[in-house]
Specification:
Elements lengths: L6 E5 L5 E5 L13 E5 L5 H7 L4 E6 L4 H17 L4 E6 L2 H13 L4 E4 L4 H13 L3 E5 L11 E5 L1 H16 L3 E7 L5 H18 L3 E8 L4 H14 L5 E4 L2 H13 L7 E5 L3 H9 L3 E6 L4 H13 L15 E4 L2 E4 L3 H4 L5
Helix pairs in contact: 2-10, 3-4, 5-6, 7-8
Length: 346
């Protein structure tokens, strides 16, 4: 397989309406990259008709979380639009269960396999098996640990989410204060990148002025967010703000803060873009901001899979060429701009 260069991409609202940015240096750079736009916002009748012959399989963890459900729903909607009878597995609750489901999908010999892994590293071997058998793999969001295990990865700019969070905290706290950070699942690429971007930007902007006094994973689960934050509150009497890696998980964190009567002592942010959290940001109070990229990335993945299955590439690239990495830009949502992003909420 020939690998293409890494291409950061800016999400433009509709399926693969992408500004493709040239490779360029440090992700934390404040300088915008030069862009060349590949406009494919509309699926033509001809494309849809041809796509109907493509065999696609789709795997994601159980859709029992708001963002994951939106990912699954967007993929299903795009497959229906394209007339693709897509095989879907979205019930796995562990990486081992998802690997077993993908093994079964491989046996059905799809043209393209689209996977959002529960965890990237444990699912890498089965993705590699698919690639070795000539099944193109599109990796969504949480990255496999080997570049040979996918044809293309479509992900959000998780490092960028961390950087934007770092900028927001630096501005709001004026580079002075104590912060708590609640991670998602420990060890996955999303968590590591959101945490590193945050730490790097706080250091860049504030030196040692803002201290991260506690960091703990809560697995994207509200109940665990509640229990983790309860423990942190007992051990830390001086907290100015909380950076959570997920809105659903953050609901549990917020409940712990409110139950302890400390919601006037601090504020918090999330990530993901749930409508419930956006409504709370709009109201003002404990919730100040969320950072997001669109879960419609799964629709992009299904559309791209339909092209790969036809031996085509993205418009603007030499068919059947596509970039090996497509990155959706991160967005900061606050009370000032929440109305314009409410439609993206899930």
């Amino acid at each position: 397989m020939k690998f293409k260069s890494v291409m950061p991409v800016v999400f433009a609202g509709a399926t693969l309406g992408l500004g493709v940015a040239a490779c360029g240096g440090d992700k934390s750079s404040d300088k915008p990259a030069a862009t060349a736009t590949a406009k494919t916002n509309t699926t033509t009748d001809e494309t849809a008709a041809q796509a109907g012959d493509v065999k696609i399989a789709f795997s994601t963890p159980a859709a029992d979380h708001g963002w994951l459900k939106a990912v699954s729903d967007n993929a299903k909607a795009k497959a229906k639009e394209l007339g693709i009878d897509m095989t879907i597995n979205d019930s796995a609750t562990t990486s081992a269960e998802q690997a077993d489901q993908i093994e079964t999908l491989i046996q059905s010999k799809p043209d393209v396999l689209v996977v959002l892994p529960n965890e990237g590293e444990p699912l890498t071997p089965v993705a590699q098996k698919a690639m070795d058998q000539g099944i193109q793999v599109i990796n969504i969001d949480r990255e496999f640990s080997s570049a040979s295990a996918f044809h293309t990865v479509i992900g959000g700019d998780n490092y960028g989410i961390g950087v934007q969070a770092g900028n927001y905290f630096a501005d709001q706290l004026k580079c002075s204060g104590n912060v708590v950070e609640i991670h998602g699942i420990a060890g996955i690429s999303v968590t590591e990148q959101r945490s590193k971007g945050f730490a790097d930007q706080l250091k860049k902007r504030c030196g040692d002025g803002i201290k991260i006094v506690a960091q703990q994973p809560a697995d994207f689960v509200p109940d665990k967010g509640l229990s983790v934050m309860e423990n942190i509150l007992q051990k830390n009497k001086d907290i100015d703000a909380v950076y959570t890696h997920d809105d659903d998980m953050g609901e549990g964190v917020a409940a712990a803060i409110e139950n302890a009567g400390r919601d006037k002592d601090m504020w918090m942010t999330g990530a993901g873009g749930s409508k419930a959290v956006m409504e709370k940001i709009k109201q003002g109070g404990l919730w100040r901001a969320t950072f997001l990229y669109n879960p419609a990335m799964s629709a992009d993945a299904v559309y791209l899979a339909s092209l790969l299955g036809q031996g085509k590439g993205l418009p603007g690239f030499a068919a059947p060429d596509v970039p090996s990495r497509i990155t959706l830009a991160a967005t900061t949502v606050t009370k000032d701009n929440v109305d314009q992003y409410m439609s993206l909420g899930f």
